[in-house]
Every structure is written in structure tokens, then in C-alpha cells.
Amino acid sequence: MRRAATWTAIAVAIVLLVVGCSSSGGGSGSTGTTVGGPACPTDPVKVVVTVDQWADIVRQLGGNCTRVTTIIQGADVDPHEYEPTPGDNAKFLDADLVVMNGLGYDEWANKMVGTLSPKPPVVDAGEVVGLTQGDNPHVWYGPTYVPQVAAAVSAELAALLPGAGDYLSDRTAAWTTAFQPYLDEVAAVKAAATGKTYAATESVFDDMAGAVGLVDLTPEGYRAAAANESDPAPADVNAFEELLRGGTVDVLIVNSQTAGSLPAQLRSVAEKAGVPVVEVTETVPPGETSFVAWQIDQLNALRVALGG
Predict the structure, then answer these.
(1) What is the CATH T-level fold of the domain 186-305, as seen in this structure?
(2) 115 phi and psi, to 5 degrees?
(3) What is the model's pTM?
């Protein structure tokens, strides 16, 4: 189900993931400014990105050869339930490229693109990495997924900008280097995490947890309810609390952007039981300067919690 990326694709892809798009705003309709460096040798293309987790990738790979508009930024809007405004819909009309997460995470965008004629090229992250509906939609937390998505975006930009080949190659080379600290931190965490256990209030971090070797002990009933965005049964909550008190969980992963009392309740139980708590976020939080900085901060916190 998951297609493996070649190392060449990884190198091409890596570039765009790194720096740039951290945005503190919530809501919709942000248009990215140009980046530093040389001017684009040809007319730039207009790219619409549905969610800010991927906008940094496009902006950094395309540089001044792209004009990036991000529809949803920050944690104030749930992409699953978002209803695009007429203004949002208008932004798709003259898009040269659309980049979306897929897997139902931003289905509204898929519907919008389906109404366009001619239809612009689309990079669907879920499709790129070989996932299907029902799989974990938080693709940006997969260390092997991100380079594959980056490679797909790179290929589309190269096709749209035939006169900017050298410029795009330079962007790729620069960001390949900038992405390496992320890969290094993943490897460092894996050395500390392999074989240890975790439980999570949501599935957002699961792909990364699996990549670094953590074993998921989250009760099945609770995990299924969280994945379906429904309330877990009291028995499932009780099983989670008993798990935390039982001494078999090495770390609790909490999505700090989740509203409601239940995550706070589980966190309290973990802290009283002496289980380290690591906070992660679903979107790029305010104050982060890049995708890489955001991810490294979280990975470093996990490594410390595990004694690495």
C-alpha cells in the first residue's frame, strides 16, 4: 500500500519540506510573499495549497517562481469540517497547481477542483505515498512520506516552469542540505525509542512514532473512537487510565491543539503516574520559523522524555 521512494526522489523532495511557511494566523486565504535570492527567470506560477503543513514545501522549492496561496492556516479551523468561502473558491479558478493532503482531510478541496475546467494538475499527498481512504491522514508526520510528496511537487513545478530548470535545481540543492538536520534528529530519536512504548490521545503523531520504533499501546477502543472523531466509551477511557497507571507506557503523546476535557484528564493521570508527556501539534504552531524547526523541537522533546 505504501510506495517506497528512491533515494533520488528523496533528494529532490527533501528540499521543499524544510523552512518557511510557519504562520501564526488562523482561518483562510493567506498568500505567500516572495522569498530571498535570485528572481525567477520566467513568469511565476500560481499554486493553491489547502493546508499550511504543506505550504512551506511548495514555497521553498518553488521560491520566486511560485505565488503560493494557502487556504487554511493555524489551528482555528478544522480542515475536516471546513466550508470554503466564495473567496476561497475563486482562488482555485486561476491556479496552475493545487497541492492538497487528501485522504479525506481536505475533501472540500477535492470537490472544488472537480468543478474546474480545465482541471489544473493536482498533487494529492495521500495518493502520492500510496495510502487510501481510511488510512491515517496525517501524512506530513511520515519521515519517508514527506520526501515523496516533495518529489511530486518538484516534478509538477518542473513541468510548469520549463524555463526555470537551473533555478529549481538550485532550490532543490539548497533545501536538501537544510532538511538534513530533520533526518538526523529522526535517527537520534530512533536510537532512544526503539522497543519502547507509547500511548496517544490522537493518531496525529502515529506515523512518526512508528518510524522511530515506538510500540503503540493505546487501547483499541479508544484509538478507534479518536480516529472516527467520536467520544470513546467510558470503558475505553478507563482502560486508558489503567494503562497509564500500570507502568507499561514509556511516554504519552498529546496533541496540544485538541480541545475538550478528555486529553487534559488523561494527561493528569499520566503525570500522577510518572509517565512523561510529550506535546505535539497538528498544524505549524505560532512562533516556529520552519517545518524543520517545528519537527525537530517535537522530536527533541520526545528523545529527552525517553532518556535519549
Answers:
(1) Rossmann fold (3.40.50)
(2) -90, -10
(3) 0.86
